[in-house]
Amino acid sequence: MELLTLFFILLIAAGLGLLIQWLPLRRQPMPTYPQRAPFLGGGLPETHAWSRFHVRYYPMTLLLIAFEMEMMFMYPWAVVFVEQGMKAVMEMGMFLAILSVGIVYGWREGVFKWQ
Amino acid sequence: MIVNELILPVILVTIVLVVGAYLVAVIDGMIAAALGTPQRGGAWLAPLTQGAWLLTQQANATEAPDWRAWRLAPALYLALAATGLAVVPFSPTLIPTDLVTSVVLWGSVEALATVVIFLHGWSANTLLALIGAYRYVALGLSYILISMFVLIGVALPAESLQFSQVVASQEGLWNVIRQPLGLPLFLIVGLGMTFWGPFNLADSRDLAGGTASTVSGPSRLVWELARAAMLVAFSGVAASAFLGGWLGPWLPGPLWVMLKMLGVLAVLLLLGRLLPRVQPERCVTLMWVVLLPLSFVDLIWAGVEALL
Prior knowledge:
The structure holds two protein chains of two kinds. Chain A is an all-alpha fold. Chain A is built from three helices and no strands. In chain A, helix 2 packs antiparallel against helix 3. Chain A is flat, with a radius of gyration of 24 Å. Chain B is mainly α. Chain B has one domain. Chain B is 70% helix and 0% strand. Chain B is built from eleven helices and no strands.
């Protein structure tokens, strides 16, 4: 029932967001093409917006995946933490320590810089 | 049963979200006026006139946007804000949706916010919007870990991933004192999630508005509304995770939650006005090298404190 309510709230909010846009916009004429040129402070669009970008933080996203996997184990771990006591601390401590070495290595390799 | 479990939650979430978003604009206007930024009109009326203006404005378009995604992105961002607010408990009994895994749900809202904001910049098919979107992804992928470690920290003493249990576990002492690093780190996450103030990398002035640079009219209204609504949802989560939610003397529970949410909002908006914008290329280093280790410290602190 909770999930159903949540889904209902999601749908209503999304519907409201679309309705606020659709109601006033449905009668508006489309702007002319010169007006629809991409906003570049008056400059001419010389490159396509979907031209290839170098995503400089790409290695950082890989590091994130390692941590996100760890997060998956961390949710059930959080629930049994007090029950398991010191054992839980050690296990997650080891896991985090190994991943932290990854951060230090990534830092040395300049993963967190863009330039 | 239908009334209690379906209609009441929807009405509650809608009212808090709409009134909250309006109050965000009012408080921000008041802070701006107090700090010396010239304001048009009174703080109470200005958001309404601006909303009406956007609603009736002739909307511009770009040459070949991804129409469906472009219209959907603001609506989805609003929907995410509503979903996030739906797990905030207002009292032991008044909880829109009392999921057993509400902390996980909030985490997914944070993750999906990154997707939606990228979609907003990508679908416009213009350069500045796309740069804003790419910048935001770098920020979004950096703050999400901090947020998760800090929230796991509050889940440890509660032995549960349910926000109502998290609030109940703060009966003796609020988490803001018990885990002193938690709230400051979480506030940074909040500014990042709504790309507000110092972490406004997606819609920043140096990109002439970033992902919203070509958005005008009703779509822009929904986008701004969704941003403010997300800030409200975030303040609700912060109030229940760190400030003891409905706990407090004399006043009834829901009122305490609202007061704490307003307090968190005021602090966030003040920070947003006072702090300069972080350089995008330094932001990732700051998050991973400084703030993420701090969130480890917070987690260890919370763990040790929970075992003692």
